[in-house]
Amino acid sequence: MKISIIIPTFNNLNYLKLFLNSIKKNSFYTEHEIILHINDGSDGTLEYAKNNKIRFSFSPKNIGLCSSMNKAYSLTTTNYILYAHDDMYFCKNWDYFLISEINSQKNNLFYLSGTNVSTRHGLINFDCGNNIEDFDEKKFEKFCLEDDTPDLQSSHWAPHIIHKELWDKIGGFSEEFNPGDGSDPDFCMKLWNANTRVFKAISKFKVYHFNSKTTRNSKVILNNGTKTFLFKYGFNPRFFRKHYLRGNISIIPYLGTLTNPIKDLNFYFELIKCKLKIFFYKMI
Fold first, then answer.
1. Whole-model pTM?
2. Host domain of residue 158
3. How many separate domains does the chain show?
């Protein structure tokens, strides 16, 4: 099984090289296709992609994550679309674990993600280095071998994979969320509306994440994704995670195929709070 790995990147060449090296070194299978969307690329990324014969789409300025994903998607040739950040490092045999899970699914209505490991803000917090200079690859590999965390209830964490048919059905990423804040929960909400009910994080498919180096180290001004999501759906991403995906920003063991939200008192109380927030935004 071949996977298209899409990586939007914005002048982050050193981390991108580390990520691509992890794909080359740690993939069980070898036929996956790498597709970049290069924003700007003046740090040498453009020349690097050309010299290494990596497929890419390009924009001379940063067009945002959502537009980057959609442009790169047009170059894909496989049935499985995986989105990843350029500041990640994939574990050994990541694709073996992921493809085994895909093969166990009854149909193509699934959203599968890796398990994000980081010094902070990960599904699992474990320190293997805060940047590329002090990244302890062997420590991460040892942790991946020894960790017994179960599969988790996924809550719009990258990297994530869906089938091409599902991508086409929902129209990819919503570009009103550029440069990217809120785009992942919106993506999952569109999947939910397309009858996807399997949202699962594969524990053995671990990725080390350096906490969005691109947005932290550049002049990217983030959008108010929470507000955009709120106006689009009538509730905020937190409400969606809790009542629809049954996930959170912490470890929750996988719950199986999801059902519709339980509309109890707490559901309506929190929904009313979201509606009041919309009213507040309209008044200011």
1. 0.94
2. 4-259
3. 1
